[in-house]
Amino acid sequence: MDINFKEIITATMILFAVIDVIGNVPIIIDLRKKVGKLESEKAALIAGVIMIAFLFLGKSILNLIGIDVNSFAVAGSLILFFLALEMILGISLYKEDATNAVTASVFPLAFPLIAGPGSLTSILSLRAEFYAVNIAIAIIINIIFMYIALKTSEKIEGFIGETGINIIRKVFGVILLAISVKLFAANIQGLFS
């Protein structure tokens, strides 16, 4: 066990960029409007457990069920693609249990927004370079940031206003769309090689 602050900072920054805490705020606000109240603690805890479990067991689990990392990332990129379309076009594709705060806190909030294909594949990539303990600490730091964003989403909405939220939603929808396309393009080639 070798705690290295440089590795922790690097892994935290990479995961922060991939999880996109700031970019997820409009999605969080949208979900909160659909379901009334989100269970922030549950979403953060489930996302944290998924990410830490994936840190230690991810590659083995995927291998066990016969799925390679590229296939996992492509499937996740499609989910992100449709979430981005919802944000950009103002449509609702996700209708299952739309009134259930518990379900919305798990899907799509904990997975795939927080513990999504980008963050999970990033964790596998980081695992090849960094000690697991440093990545685990970086995951916990990012979960704390996400929890704060979940808890303060109403205040953020009040500060920015409805028009500001709509603008941010469209802008980050395009960014999320670009991330999904990049994730798809980077991993689709791996399926055929």
- Specify the overall morphology: globular
| Number of contiguous helices | 8
**Radius of gyration, in angstroms, nearest whole number:** 16 Å
Low-confidence stretches: none
Pairing-aware structural class of the strands and helices?
mainly alpha
The average pLDDT value, as a whole number, equals: 84
Number of strands: 0
The fraction of residues assigned to DSSP E strands is under 5%
- How helical, in percent, are the residues? over 70%
Note down, in words, how this protein is organized.
The chain is mainly alpha-helical. The chain contains eight helices and no strands. Helix 3 packs across helix 6 (117-129). It is globular and about 45 Å long.
What are the key terms here?
about 190 residues; mainly alpha; globular
SSE diagram, text form:
Layout lengths: L4 H15 L1 H15 L4 H25 L4 H21 L11 H14 L2 H13 L2 H20 L1 H40 L1
Helix pairs in contact: 1-6, 1-7, 2-5, 2-7, 2-8, 3-5, 3-6, 3-7, 4-6, 4-8
Quick recap:
The protein is 84% helix and 0% strand.
